[in-house]
Each structure stands twice: as C-alpha cells, then as structure tokens.
Amino acid sequence: MSTVAFSGPPGDPRVTVAGMSSPALTALDAAGLPYRVIRHGPVRSLAEAAQARGVAVPDVVKTIVVRRGEDDHLFVLTPGDRVVSWPKLRQLLGVSRMSMPDAAAARAATGYERGTITPFGSSTAWPVVADERLRGREITLGAGEHGVAVAVDADAALAALDATVADVTDPEPAR
C-alpha cells in the first residue's frame, strides 16, 4: 500500500498516484477538503479493502446509488459493516419505491464504475444521504478508480456534500 497526502490550496492541479487526472480529487480540492490518497490495488471484498487501506471495516464507506425515479438518483453512504435499511430510507425520503440501478445505469448516472463510485466528482451532483454512524471519524471512500481510495474527515466531507445525515442502515446480516 502506498499513501500520498495532498494538502495544498484548493485549485492546485492534482493527479492520482496512477498519474491520471481524477474528477474525485478535483472535487475534493474544490471543496477545500484535506485528504489522503491510498493506492492499494485490487481487492475482492470489503474486509480486504479495509485491510489494504489500514482501517477498520466500518471506516470503509460504501457509496450506494439509489434510483427514486426517471433520471432521479441519490447517493447513500453506509459504514462498511452495515447495509441500507430500505424502510428507514423510504420513510426519510417520503417515497414508497426505490431501486438500485444496474451497473450500466449507475455508471451513466455517476460517471463511475461500480466499486469506484463516490459522490465527489460525480458527473451529476445527486443528493447525498449518509448514515449517522459515519460522524466523528476518518473514513475512506472510493476515489473514482479501482484500487484507489481517499481518507477524509467524515464530518467535513458530509458538510461539503450537504448530506442529509440520519439512521438509514441496519447491521450487516450474519452469513
């Protein structure tokens, strides 16, 4: 694992450790958020991602794309050890139906492939709902490309995203 820290002023040109421009890093810079880029290579599970990033499983944030209607999506941020509670989310949003788009539709809605999705730098700035358990910690999020994540202060990130923060998850079911 290699970690690269960026801490310059917003607007500085940034590239990922892979040497390519990243919409996610550009968006983080524009928001003035300090972050660390963590390049860890391929992982096959959330537990592997946590180990590769050097964090606990709850600090690996899953970014879920949810479809409310035609061309109406949102991001739901959940701790790695939890899953979206559809009844809680529907109640919060006041809707009776939601779905998860397939991989192609998620990419069309965000500009990112599954496994790399982040609300930062998405092709459309969809609303963000974050589980309340993310508060007060450093979290890691996808950075828009496979094998790369960013570590950021959750409270600062949620504020920058103007996220609605609520109890919208349940514990991960035992397997």
TrEMBL record:
Q: Name one Pfam family in it.
A: tRNA_edit
What GO annotations for molecular function exist for this entry? aminoacyl-tRNA deacylase activity
The record's annotation in InterPro entries points to: YbaK/aa-tRNA-synt-asso_dom_sf (IPR036754), YbaK/aa-tRNA-synth-assoc-dom (IPR007214)
Every YbaK/aminoacyl-tRNA synthetase-associated domain range: 40-154
| UniProt superkingdom | Bacteria
Q: What is this protein called?
A: YbaK/aminoacyl-tRNA synthetase-associated domain-containing protein
